[in-house]
Amino acid sequence: MAGKKETFSGEKIYKLFIYIALITLAISIIIPVGWVFLASIKQNAEFYGNPWALPQGFYVQNFISAWTKAKMGEYMWTSVLVTALAIFILLIVALPAAYVLARFKFTGKKILSALFMAGLFINVNYIVVPIFLMFVDGDAVLKSVFGTGFLLNNPYILALVYAATALPFTIYLLTGYLITLPTDFEEAAYVDGSGYFRTMTRIILPMAKPSIVTVILFNFLSFWNEYIISMTLLSSANGPKTLPVGLMNLMKAQNAAAQYGQMYAGLVLGMLPTLILYMIVQKKLTQGMTLGGLKG
Amino acid sequence: MKKGKKSVLFITLCLAPAVILYFIFMIIPTVNVFRMSFYKWGGYSNNKLFVGFDNFVILFRDMKFMQSMQNSLLLIALVTIFTFGLSILFAAILTKEKIKGKNFFRVVFYIPNVLSVVVIAAIFSAIYDPNNGMLNSFLSIFRRDSQPVYWLGDQKIVIFSLAAAMVWQAIGYYMVMYMASMASIPESLYECADLEGAGRITQFFHITLPLIWTNIRTTLTFFIISSINMSFLFVKAMTGGGPDGSTEVFLSYMYKQAYTNSSYGYGMAIGVIVFLFSFGLAATVNFITKREPIEF
Fold first, then answer.
1. A263 contacts in B (CB within 8 Å)?
2. Does B15 lie at the interface with A, CB-CB under 8 angstroms?
3. Lesser CB count within 10 Å: N end or C end of chain A?
4. pLDDT (mean) for A104-110
5. How many angstroms separate the CA atoms of A67 and B15, rounded?
C-alpha cells in the first residue's frame, strides 16, 4: 500500500511540474506582448520608472503622433496595398500553373515541376541584392529612354517581387491539393462542351477553395511581416515604406529621441492586424500547416 | 482528355506568367549570385573585373567572416537543440496528458509565429533593456547587487539573448506540427505499453519518438536551412551585428558587404559559400539521423 501511495504523490508532482512548464512558457509569451499594448498608452515620463507599473491613463496622443508624425498611417496603407496586390498577382499566376501541372500531360512537365521544386530551396535573402542590382540597371536604362525609372522605390514592383518569390511554395501546395481532387466533374464538363478555361474557373476554382484559403493565410502573414526585400527595394529615405521597415526606423529613432510611447503605439499598429487575423482563423491556420507540409 | 492545338494553347497560357515571373525574379538572380562571385565589382560604377576564385581566397582569410561563421554555427546549434527539445516535449505533453486548457496553450504558443521579426525584435529590446527592461527588473527581485545585465550590450551574453528570442519565436510552430503527427499514433500502442508496465519516459522514447522520427528528420533538415535565414532576420532587426561583430552571422555579413558596403562581387562570394554550406550541413544532418523507418 505504501508503494501505491508513493506513486500517487509522484503523479501529483509530475502534473504540477507539467503545469509549471506550460504556464511559464505561456506567460513568457503573453506578458511581453501584453506589455507592449500597455506601453503604447503610457506617457513618455512613465517609461523611466518601474516597467511593471500600470499606465496612468489612456494616452491616445501616442497613436495620433505614430499615425501622423511617424507616418505609420502612410506605411500601413503601403503595406495593405503591397500585401493585397501581391496575393492577387500570386493567385492569378499560380492557380492556372498549378492546375496545368496537376492535370495535363505535356512534354517538359517533369522538368518544369522539378524547376519549381528547386525554387523551394532558394531563399530570398540570397537573391535580394541581385534583384536590387537588376533594378538599378533597369532604372538606368529606363532613365535614358523615358527620362525616369520606376523599378526601385515602387510598391507595385515590390508586390510583383513578393508574388514571384512566393511562387514555388504556392505552386507546390496547390498542385499537391489539386492532384487529390476527383476528375469526374471536369470530364462531365468537357462532355457538355465546356472549354478549358471555363472548366478551370467554374469547376476547379470552387473545389480548390480550401487550399486557396491556406495560400492566402500563409502569404498574408509572410508578406505583411517581410522586411528585408522591402528595406532593400524601397530604400529612398522619403519614399514609400512598408510597416515593418517604418517600425525599424522608428526603433532606431527611438534610441536617439526617446519617443517610447510613439514607438510602442506603432508596434501595436503593426501587430494588431496579424493578431486579429490569427484569433479569427487560428484553427484553419494550424490545420493548413499540416495540409501544406513544410514552410521553409 | 482532349488533345490538340487548343490544349497546347491553354497549357502555354496557364504556365507562361508563372514561368516568366519565376525566371526573372528567381532563376536569373540565383544565377547572378554565382556569376558575380567571380568578379571584383564595387560601387555603382560598372567596372566589373573577372578575378576567378580570388574572392573566395580572400574570404577564407577574412577573420570577420570566420567570426560570423562561428556565431552562425553556435546560433544554429543552440536554437536547433532548444527549439526541437522543447517543442517535442511540449507537443508530447499536450497530446498525451489530460491538461486543462489544452487548446488555450496551443493557441498561445503559436502567437510568436504570426508576428513580424521586427515586432519580436522590439518586444525583446523592451525585455532586454538594461535599465528599465522587464528581465532585469524581474531578476532584481532575486539579485541584491543592482548592477544591470547588458543582455544585448555584453559581447559574451548577446548571442544567447539572440538565441532565446529565436527559440521563443519558433517553438509554437514546430510544436503544433509535432502535435499533429503525434495525434496520428494509435492509442492502442500506449495501452499495450501501459499494461506491460512501461512508464511515461519509456513510452516516449520507445513509441512516440521512433514513430514520428521521419517527421522530425524532415523538419530538422528544413529548420537548419531556415535558421541560417532566421538568424539574419533577427540580427538585422535586433543587434545589427554588434556589439563589435559579436552577433554577425553568415547572411548579415553578406548583406553588409554586398549592400551596405557595395562590394557586390565579394558579397556574392559569401552568398555562394553560405548556400553550399547550408546544403552540406542539411545533407550531413539528414545522413546522421537516418534510421530504418518504423511504421504502425
1. 122
2. yes
3. N
4. 88
5. 42
Whether the CB-CB separation of B261 and B177 falls below 8 Å is answered with no
Domain ranges of chain B: 79-239
| Residue B50 β-bridge partners | B39
CATH number for the domain running over B79-239: 1.10.3720.10
What's residue A1's pLDDT? 40
Question: What would the mean pLDDT of B73-79 be, rounded to a whole number?
Answer: 93
pTM: 0.88
In 3D space, the residue among A75, A73, A62 whose CA is nearest the CA of residue A248 turns out to be: A75
C-alpha distance from B156 to closest chain A C-alpha (Å) = 22
Name residue B273's amino acid.
I
Q: Does the pLDDT value for residue B241 go beyond 80?
A: no
Which positions 241-270 of B are in contact with A (Cβ < 8 Å)?
Answer: 251, 254-255, 258-259, 264, 267-268
The ipTM (two decimal places) reads: 0.87
Instruction: Give the separation between CA B198 and CA A192, rounded to whole angstroms.
Output: 62
Specify which residues B49 forms β-bridges with. B40
Q: Do B176 and A126 touch (CB under 8 A)?
A: no
B222 vs A contacts (CB less than 8 Å): 294, 296
Contacts of A125 in chain B (CB under 8 A): 229, 232-233, 251, 255
Of A94-103, A199-208, A226-235, B170-179, the one with minimum mean pLDDT is A199-208
φ, ψ at B149 (rounded to 5°): -90, 130
Grid cell for residue A267: 508596434
Contacts of A217 (CB under 8 A, 6+ apart): A277, A281, A284, A285, A288
Cβ neighbors of B61 (< 8 A, separation 6 or more) are none
B115 touches chain A (CB under 8 A): yes
**Best CA proximity match to B237, nearest among A276, A16, A231:** A231
C-alpha–C-alpha distance, residues B25 and B242, integer Å: 32
Contact indicator for B154, B162 with CB cutoff of 8 Å:
no
Q: Please report the domains of chain A, with CATH numbers, ordered by start residue.
A: 61-292 (1.10.3720.10)
Of A49, A99, A129, the CB nearest to B14: A99
Q: Which three cell numbers stand for residue B27?
A: 532563376
Q: At what angle do helices B28-36 and A124-146 cross, to 10 degrees?
A: 100
A26-50: average pLDDT: 85
* CB pair distance less than 8 Å for A36 and B126: yes
Instruction: Find the helix or strand (DSSP H, E) in which B39 lies.
Output: strand B39-40
Q: CB within 8 A of B157, min separation 6: which ones? A: B149, B150, B151
- Say which DSSP state B263 is in: B
Q: Sign of dihedral through CA atoms B116, B117, B119, B123?
A: positive
Q: Of A177, A197, A179, A181, nearest to A189 (Cα)?
A: A197
Give the three-class secondary structure for B49: strand
Q: Convert the pLDDT of each residue in A117-159 to its tens digit.
A: 888 888 888 899 999 989 988 888 888 888 888 888 999 999 9
Residue of A nearest to B108 (CA): A26
What is the reported pLDDT for A296? Answer: 34
pLDDT at residue A2 is higher than 60: no
Q: What is the per-residue pLDDT for B89? A: 92
